[in-house]
Amino acid sequence: MSFWSDRNVFVTGATGLLGSWLVGDLLGRGANVVCLMRDWVPRSLLASSGDLERANVVRGELEDHALLLRAINEYEIDSVFHLGAQTIVGTASRSALSTFEANVRGTWNLLEACRTCAKRVERVVVASSDKAYGSHEKLPYTEDAPLQGRFPYDASKSCADLISLSYFHTFGVPLAVTRCGNLYGGGDLNFNRLIPGTIRSALRNEPPIVRSDGQFVRDYFFVRDAVMAYMELAERLPDERFVGQAFNFGTETPLSVLELVERILAVMDKSRLEPVILNEASHEIREQYLDCSKARRMLGWKPRFGLEESLQETVAWYRAWLGQEASRD
């Protein structure tokens, strides 16, 4: 039997990229999944895959503490994946308040509900981000680097991360924190992001758009590897060696924006397309990537998918999805 068979699992951010893949995996392993869903997103992977129909759905927001407490209590939740957040850097810069409300207040609301239901909740995995570290001269980031986000999105993740660890150290909530690189994979429908935007442009034989100067450096992390990382970490909780810990997850192979665009175009046999560089990005860290040796050492974890393989799978997903969209028009 799977570790997850018949466990009652609460997933926030279930309609997002990571949430959609994680819910599908949990359902496949026999879990009883309860999804928190603010907006109805019919084009999301969670909905289009049919997984949403196999899960219980609680409609509401992270900002509503009473709703979170009711969901965790009434569904007798024993495992929580807190993925819900406002995740777009540009959106955070335009509207810092809504980002802080969702990412910071939403996190303490959820953890307070878990604390209240301490007799039931056995494990909580909180999604932080590599952005929580802010900008540091020393690279790659290790888990002991200070959390010093300066821009609105980064600061919201720093705060949520610190609040999460405080709930462990003060109240003993059995949680661990993940700090991942930039996630990508089939199902991300925010085409302002680099990878889905580049793939869509290339499929249309249009030059891809680069918002920055193309020299920003990041660690790009395939969503299926991220799901495995979350699952493996959650299965170790509430072991005392893992609770209260933060773990970096990524590929440890940083790429500049232009390098990644070139790799995508090569996989798609579209190298003749020249990217349009807008050089308009602001409020973003120039270089950021992770040291994942702690996860390798303590969890025995490493990515299973190489960049070319994962890009090929991602391109195939968008080619099929965009073809279906075109046939509906």
Structural overview:
There is one protein chain. The chain is of the alpha/beta class. 42% of the residues lie in helices and 15% in strands. The chain is built from eleven helices and 13 strands. It has helices spanning 17-28, 45-48, 65-74, 89-94, 96-116, 152-171, 194-203, 223-236, 257-267, 293-299, 307-328, and strands at 8-12, 32-37, 56-59, 79-82, 123-127, 175-180, 182-184, 209-210, 217-218, 220-222, 246-249, 255-256, 276-277. The strands form four sheets. It has a seven-stranded parallel sheet with strand order 3-2-1-4-5-6-11, with helices on both faces. The chain has a two-stranded parallel sheet with strand order 7-10. Helix 1 (17-28) packs across helix 8. The longest helix is centred in the C-terminal third of the chain and has 22 residues, at 307-328. The radius of gyration is 19 Å and the shape is globular. 45% of the residues are buried.
Number of DSSP E strands: 13
| SS summary, helix count | 11
Question: Mean pLDDT, nearest integer?
Answer: 95
CATH superfamily (homologous) name of the largest domain = NAD(P)-binding Rossmann-like Domain
Q: Which blocks of ≥5 consecutive residues have pLDDT under 50?
A: none
Could you state the oligomeric state of the chains shown? single chain
